[in-house]
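From the shared-data thread, chain only:
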Amino acid sequence: MAATRITDAQLRAVGELLDAMHDAVEDVERLTVLDAAFHRAVVTATGNETLTALLDGISSRTLRARVWRGTVDRGVTHVTLSQHKAIYDALADRDPAVATAAALMHVDTSERWLRAHLADIRELDGRLEL
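Structure, as tokens:
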């Protein structure tokens, strides 16, 4: 939906977030904040307030896991940036099929990593809660 509804101003904002992410590639915490902002900007472009609210809830609950991933798997930042670039390019082309495919690949990559490391993340959360 974002590919067909995104305004030029919204697209510029998504591009600026992508540029800022490239600049913050060595700062995992800053990169994670920008990552969340990138996702929110894309979802906001859909015009679907329910989807935006759902993303906000999911994003806040996965923040620590994403910071941890960026810390222990340093190569993941470049994968994330590449996937975000693919999403941005599809949005810029106003191509909903390619945008959907790029977003699905991004979500799948993240979900596979999360499933593979869920026990480690739960252990980390337990230590952080103490």
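The radius of gyration is 15 Å.
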